Structures are given as structure tokens and as C-alpha cells.
């Protein structure tokens, strides 16, 4: 969808950064010009480049309920191409189905085995099972005492060290945002420059608790 994606990835990789590309591995990725660029990046930078593919469920029936009839097979087609060129892959799934995490990971593991995908189903950073986000859900307030109770560090939350830059349609300039999940919440817009965005982020949105702190999910690799 983004014509400059390959060059954007190359610009970061040449500076020594690791790059994570979020994709559904469908038609835009399969254009020849895009494929040629991706193949060159994989050959040059190897595991510095990761593709996290949205596979909502390991079965076609459930995945296609979310993405449309035939979407599962189209995504697998793209993943097979990534597999064959040696690209490093991860998967983003969902937990809306009411099954246990163990059952979900077992299902993904079987899919990977059947397809010959080198993806670790048991590693939560590689097969990421995202909690569902419902702004109306009643979730606990995050306080300073939570870190000790949960035995995690506030530095582990993505907004402690990462920012999102986006330019809204009609805006004069880009804005720096605290979180990829909250692009339209005014209180999470931190200013027009990275320097403006150095301040603390208050975890006072339901997504902060449900998704990041209690859910343990992350948008990073």
C-alpha cells in the first residue's frame, strides 16, 4: 500500500537498525516491484528485517470471518513466498475466539509445521496473541503499585521508549504520538517534534491496562 516502504526499510537498515514490517502478506506485497525490493533486503540484511503477518486465527474459517472469504489462503500464499526467500517471519493473532492460550499456540504450531514456516508458536514475542481492545470494558486503573504486583517494570511498556509519527489528512505537519493504538486521542499527541515527545506518558486509557500492562501485548518485535 505504501510505495516507499522498501526504501523506508532500507534507510533504517543501512543505519544499523532492526526493522519490523506489519503486513497481511496479501496483494500489495505480491507486486513484482515490491517483491524484488523485499528479496534484495532479505538477502542483504537477513534477520535484521522481520515481517509480522496478521493471521487472526490458525484456521481458515475463523480468519476469514474477520478478513473476508479467501483471505486466509491469500495470506498463506504470501507467507509461503516469504518462507521461500528466507525472510524472518512472526505472526500476530487474536484472542477473541474464547479458546485457551495453550490451545491457540498448539493450533498455530500445527499450521507452521504443515506449511514449513520457521516461526516459534510458543514465543509470545514471535507469535503474538493480542488481547481484544474494548474502550467500554471496565478495566483496573494502573497505579505505581501495579509494577511490583505484576513483577514488571514500567520501562517494559512500549511508550516508555517508543513513539509513533503520523500525519493526519489535511494537517500541515506530522505529529508525534505516544502510542500506535491511540492515534486520535488528543491527550496522547505529544507535539510536532521528537524533543517535544520526551515527557512521561500517563497510562490513563483502557487500552493501557487491557492491552499493554495487563494484557502483556506489544506492537514491537
Radius of gyration: 18 Å
Strand content: 5-15%
* Bulk shape: globular
Q: How many runs of DSSP E, i.e. beta strands? A: 7
Major sheet: arrangement of strands: 1-2-3-4
Give unreliable regions as ranges: none
Average predicted local confidence, pLDDT: 89
Helices, by number, come to 7
Secondary-structure element string: HEHEHHEHEHEEEH
In terms of structural class, how would the helical and strand content be classed? alpha/beta
Estimated helix fraction = 25-40%
The main β sheet shows up as: 4 strands, parallel
Question: What's the arrangement of secondary structure elements?
Answer:
Elements: H1 5-13, E1 19-23, H2 32-45, E2 49-54, H3 60-67, H4 71-84, E3 88-94, H5 101-115, E4 127-130, H6 145-150, E5 164-166, E6 175-177, E7 189-191, H7 206-213
Parallel strand pairs: 1-2, 2-3, 3-4
Antiparallel strand pairs: 5-6, 6-7
Helix pairs in contact: 1-2
Structure description:
It is a single chain. With 221 residues, this protein is an alpha/beta fold. The protein is built from seven helices and seven strands, in the order H-E-H-E-H-H-E-H-E-H-E-E-E-H. Strands 1-2-3-4 form a four-stranded parallel β-sheet. The radius of gyration is 18 Å and the shape is globular.
Amino acid at each position: 500500500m505504501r510505495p516507499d516502504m522498501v526504501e523506508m526499510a532500507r534507510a533504517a537498515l543501512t543505519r544499523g537498525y532492526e526493522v519490523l514490517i506489519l503486513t497481511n502478506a496479501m496483494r500489495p506485497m505480491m507486486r513484482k516491484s515490491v517483491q524484488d525490493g523485499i528479496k534484495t533486503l532479505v538477502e542483504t540484511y537477513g534477520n535484521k528485517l522481520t515481517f509480522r503477518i496478521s493471521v487472526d486465527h490458525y484456521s481458515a474459517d475463523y480468519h476469514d470471518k474477520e478478513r473476508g472469504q479467501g483471505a486466509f489462503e491469500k495470506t498463506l500464499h504470501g507467507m509461503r513466498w516469504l518462507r521461500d526467500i528466507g525472510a524472518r517471519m512472526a505472526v500476530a493473532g487474536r484472542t477473541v475466539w474464547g479458546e485457551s492460550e495453550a490451545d491457540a499456540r498448539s493450533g498455530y504450531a500445527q499450521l507452521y509445521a504443515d506449511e514449513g514456516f520457521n516461526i516459534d508458536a510458543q514465543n509470545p514475542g514471535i507469535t503474538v496473541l493480542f488481547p481484544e481492545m474494548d474502550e467500554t470494558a471496565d478495566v483496573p486503573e494502573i497505579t505505581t503499585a501495579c509494577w511490583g504486583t505484576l513483577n514488571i517494570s514500567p520501562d517494559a511498556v512500549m511508550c516508555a521508549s517508543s513513539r509513533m509519527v503520523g500525519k493526519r489528512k489535511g494537517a500541515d505537519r506530522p505529529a508525534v504520538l505516544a502510542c500506535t493504538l491511540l492515534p486520535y486521542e488528543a491527550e496522547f499527541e505529544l507535539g510536532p517534534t521528537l524533543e517535544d515527545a520526551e515527557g512521561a506518558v500517563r497510562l490513563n486509557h483502557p487500552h493501557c491496562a487491557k492491552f499493554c500492562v495487563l494484557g502483556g501485548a506489544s506492537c514491537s518485535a
